[in-house]
Amino acid sequence: MKIIKTVSILVILLSFSQCGGSTLMKNPILKVEKAFYNKWVGGQPGVSGTKVEIHLEDAQEVIFVALYFQGKRTQVEVSKIDKFTQIIAHFSTSKRKHRNLILDADIIKETGNTLPILEEFPFQLKENEAILSYKKENKTLYFKIENIKKVQSIPFPSMNKK
């Protein structure tokens, strides 16, 4: 019985020590040149999203992973423009979801439906703040970006109906 308690305590301590590997950087190596976001509306009803664009200086030896913004998380696109690293993240806010649900009176047929994945948002952020996760030397780090400017929304025209 004493061995089980000791092993349990050891497992709990090791799991907490793993949490220290991912931290929010207080003195980050990244410098934000500019950061802005805009909401867009598509040509089809219910299709919309948010685009976040961040320009960073001196972002060498860093692998960018994801951006957390307004309660959502998404992968980022990274490109180099002159001396800046451009980070772009696209967040869908579309009401149109393409889920193939099987609805039937026979509940056996409905067992093929998959449950939605509910991910808890790990940060408390204002509407104009984001967290950029990145890897450096096999360590996951988080960088808080504040005062992201909201720019004019973009309405995309609908397709011509024939």
Topology record:
Layout (H helix, E strand, L loop, with lengths): L1 H18 L3 E2 L6 E11 L6 E10 L5 E7 L2 E4 L1 E5 L2 E9 L37 E7 L2 E7 L3 E2 L3 E2 L7
Parallel strand pairs: 1-9, 2-10, 2-11
Antiparallel strand pairs: 2-3, 3-7, 4-5, 4-8, 6-7, 8-9
The number of distinct β-strands equals 11
The profile of the biggest β sheet is: 6 strands, mixed
Rg on CA atoms, Å: 21 Å
Distance between the termini: 76 Å
Your description of this structure?
There is one protein chain. With 162 residues, this protein is mainly β. Helix content is 11%, strand content 41%. It has one helix and eleven strands, in the order αβββββββββββ. The chain has one helix at residues 2-19, and strands at residues 23-24, 31-41, 48-57, 63-69, 72-75, 77-81, 84-92, 130-136, 139-145, 149-150, 154-155. The strands form two sheets. Strands 2, 3, 6, 7, 10 and 11 form a six-stranded mixed beta sheet that branches. It has a five-stranded mixed beta sheet with strand order 1-9-8-4-5, with no helix packed on it. A hairpin with a 6-residue loop joins strand 2 (31-41) and strand 3 (48-57). The chain is globular and about 60 Å long. The protein starts with a helix and ends in a 7-residue tail after the last strand.
